[in-house]
Write a structure and sequence with these properties.
6-stranded mixed sheet, 27% helix, single chain, globular, alpha/beta, 16 strands, Nitrilase/N-carbamoyl-D-aminoacid amidohydrolase
């Protein structure tokens, strides 16, 4: 791993793709001007569904959102994590919820399809069935970018520690958790789960989240953050649209893993 400055971007996306990309551009450009070399934006950056219509997604190769982000990465000479967009599938009414890792030249390094889908019904609080629109992925994914090994995940994946252990075993040094975490669950669980994933896997965590009221019943928690391998929050955007930057230091990562060699002590 190399020492590198990274950023997480917090947005309030809606179903207005043009305005969503305008918002994202402003924050990405700000983070790039601040020296970030890898910039991570949230789940559903380009389009966040708030109504009951069908969203069949777009092909990766021709997606307007992906194409826009590829051009922006090349223009700014930065690597981008597009937290997710809906990638078209063979099914006419369901897509994949897909993260896209883009390098400084605008080339796609790899993609990850969200494995765990948010199907929940808490009476009087939140009802959401992601599987109505999304097909689950099946494989953990590691990406090599800017001298780092990224372990990719999306939002509800955060509640399943076995995924992150697989990513750590595959050599992940940084875990990415782009999200549109609900306001109700985020207040109780967002930070504690992120810090737990950092601590138990001794990895940096980049967690860009959606924030605020998007329309309909969609309301996201925000509090995007960057966490070090000791579980300390080293940068965050508490409320509103914005970005936060931090340095990821290989010496810090090595020190934590050397002084508390949990991976060597596993018995199960």
């Amino acid at each position: 791993m190399q020492r590198v400055k990274v950023a997480v971007v917090q947005l309030r996306s809606t179903e207005d793709v043009t305005d969503n990309l305008r918002q994202a551009d402003i924050q990405i450009r700000g983070a790039a001007a601040d020296g970030a070399r890898l910039i991570a934006v949230p789940e559903n950056t380009g389009f966040l569904k708030t109504g009951n219509g069908v969203d069949a997604g777009e092909p990766l190769e021709t997606s307007a959102v992906v194409t826009h982000m590829r051009a922006l990465a090349s223009e700014l000479d930065v690597a981008l994590l597009l937290g997710s967009f809906h990638k078209a599938s063979a099914e006419p009414t369901r897509a994949y919820n897909t993260s896209v890792v883009i390098d400084r030249t605008g080339q796609i390094v790899t993609t990850y399809d969200k494995i765990h889908l948010f199907d929940i019904d808490v009476p009087g609080q939140v009802t959401f069935k992601e599987s109505d629109d999304i097909i689950p992925g099946t494989q953990p994914v590691i990406a090599d970018i800017e001298g780092m090994r990224l372990g990719l995940s999306i939002c509800y994946d955060l509640r399943f520690p076995e995924l992150y252990r697989k990513l750590a075993e595959a050599g992940a040094e940084v875990i990415t958790v782009p999200a549109a975490f609900t306001a109700q669950t985020g207040k109780a669980h967002w930070e504690v789960l992120l810090r737990a994933r950092a601590i138990e896997n001794q990895c940096y965590v980049l967690a860009p989240d959606q924030w605020g009221i998007h329309g309909g019943k969609r309301h996201s928690h925000g509090d995007s953050m960057i966490i070090d391998p000791w579980g300390q929050v080293i940068a965050r955007v508490s409320d509103g649209v914005g970005f936060a930057c931090a340095w990821l230091d290989p010496d810090r990562l090595d020190s934590v893993r050397r002084n508390l060699p949990c991976a060597d002590h596993r018995r199960l």
